Every structure is written in C-alpha cells, then in structure tokens.
Amino acid sequence: MHIEIPYNVRPRPDTGLYNAKLGIWLFLASEVMLFGALFSSLILLRSGVPHWPHGRDEGLNIPLATVNTLVLIISSVTVVLAWANLRLGDLKKGRIFLGATLLCACGFMVIKAIEYTDKFKLGHFPKTNNFYAIYFTLTGLHGLHVLGGMIVFSYFIGPGAKMWFTEQARYTNRIEVAGLYWHFVDLVWIFLFPVLYLL
Amino acid sequence: MESSQQVDEQTHGGVHDPNVHHSPEEIKKEVRKYLVVFFVLACLTAITVAISYLHLPTNEAIAVALIIASIKAFLVAGYFMHLLSERKLIYAVLAVTVFFFAMLLWAPWNHHYDYFGR
Q: How many CA atoms lie within 13 Å of A78's alpha carbon, on the beta-carbon side?
C-alpha cells in the first residue's frame, strides 16, 4: 500500500511550513542539545583546573584548521547556490554546486585525517589527557556529521536526483532541508575552531 | 501527489521568505547576498586567527573569539539558513532550544561552588 506523506511541497496551513522543514528544525534542536552537552563538558573540564592547555601548545595545527574553516564556509555557500539554482529550474548547475559541496566535505575530512594522523604519531590519543579527550570527542562527533552530510549529498547528486524529473519542487525542498543540516554542521565548527584551537 | 509547487504567494514582512515562491530576479539578488556573506565570513575567520596571535589575557581572548564566532553564527543562521525571515513556529522551537542550551552552558560554571550539591 502506498502512503503519501502530506505537505512535502505545499506549506501546511497551521504551521506555514512544509513538513520536512519543520522536521529538520526539530532535529537540529536535538543536535544543539547533543553538542551543547559536550560544550558543557568542555566548560566543566576547563574551569575545573588552574591551567588549561592552549591548543597551539598541545600541537594542534592552526593553519590546517583555518583552511578547514574556510572549506566549510565555502561548502555552505555552494549548498545555498545549489538550492538557488534548483529554484531557478537549473538541475545541471544545482548538481554542480552539490558536487562542489561534496568535494569541500571530502577536503575537510582529508585535512581532519591528516591532523588526526599527526596526533597519533606523536602519541596523542583520547586517553592522553582531558584536553585530547574532549578534542577527539568533539571533533570526532563533528566529523561523523560531516560524513553523514556526504552520504546525503552523494545520494542527491546520484540516484536521488531522479525525483527532479517527476517532482521538481519536492526535490528542491529536499536540497533546502539537507542544506539546513549542512549549515548547522558549519555552525558547530565555527565555535569548535576558536574554542579548541585558538583559546 | 503534489506535482508542482503550489505555495503561498503572500509576502512575509517585506523580506525574503524561503517558504514562498520568488521570481528569478529575486533569487539572483539572494545569490549576491550569499556571496557578500561568504566574503564577510572569510574576513572574520582571518581576524579570529590574527587576534589569537596577539596573546591576549585568557578572559579577553575568550570574549573576543566568542563574539566573533557569534557574529559568524548569526550570519550563517540568518542568511544561509534564512532565519531572519522564518515562520514563528521555528522561532518558538529555537527559543526553547536556546533556553535549554543556555542552561547547559551555565550549569558547569557553578560546579566549584557546589551549587547543585547543597
């Protein structure tokens, strides 16, 4: 039996939103609490000791992390450009910008892998000290979110794009929703970068 | 099955509303805005890194870095996530979220007073 999910294009009269959009915002609210708990842990650990190590002193690579920050910001722009082009009815350009977003996400993960490898070579693991415990937990969880975004974008560039030819507006909305998730991933990094690397 | 975008054509306070249909000109104008926001975000990232090399006292460094991060977050949420012109329901969801998030961040500051233990 085929059951159609209502209001996946047209806004629901009582909320003024299509369902997926309200859904992603509720999901993002739960994500705020997930990362919030870990930021709370960081504050607890940091304020509980007289001296908290500086990211730079612990050997974190600031230039690489700066590049990663720019890469994520660029990917946020490319995903809104993909959405804008789809709204203009241009699937080709939309897919190109989604591809650029995916490429940026891959770049971010490669840089993160380089950073992690350097740390492991120096014998820095989550068990080393509280600084590395929270560093690996926060950046690891964030990395998993990047990976999740990569899977979603790969699907929408590939098999998921078939929807464009039957339900153009619904496909466009899906990219908007995926984009909202992706901007959240960018937002988290905007705070992680100074908190872990620069302070 | 909905085969075409049948959306509410009304405007939303005269600003960009992501939930209504827009003309190609309006969308192109939005794109230009996104590019300006990107440029500002890139500049703010450079400023954050530059300031970290000034070796400010810890409290000042934390304050400056968090203020810049908050401005960047406002730009991403406001323009890329179009929160500046969203529906009230989303604001309501976020208001609850912000309250509990603030509680999460506030609680550990008091741990050394054993605030919750008394």
A: 20
